[in-house]
Write a structure and sequence with these properties.
Blueprint (H helix, E strand, L loop, with lengths): L10 H22 L21 H9 L3
InterPro entries: TAT_signal
Organism: Meridianimarinicoccus aquatilis
Protein name: Twin-arginine translocation pathway signal protein
Length: about 60
């Protein structure tokens, strides 16, 4: 290996920067977040989400083990 300096960043410099910047980005995102109201669910929780059709019945019958 030669001891000549290289131009640009090395892999080690990149990993050092990545290890510091990832937690900083998470902290900045959590501090800057505002409270948002949750969206209403699309379907009521008591109803089935799949429609009862011949296609869905055929699929469910074929998926049984």
């Amino acid at each position: 290996m030669s001891d000549t300096p290289k131009d640009g960043a090395s892999r080690r410099d990149f990993l050092k920067l990545a290890s510091v910047s990832a937690p900083a980005a998470v902290a900045a995102a959590s501090l800057g977040a505002t409270q948002v109201d949750a969206a209403a669910p699309a379907a009521p929780t008591g109803e089935a989400r799949l429609q009862d059709t011949a296609h869905t019945r055929a699929y469910l019958d074929s998926a049984r083990f």
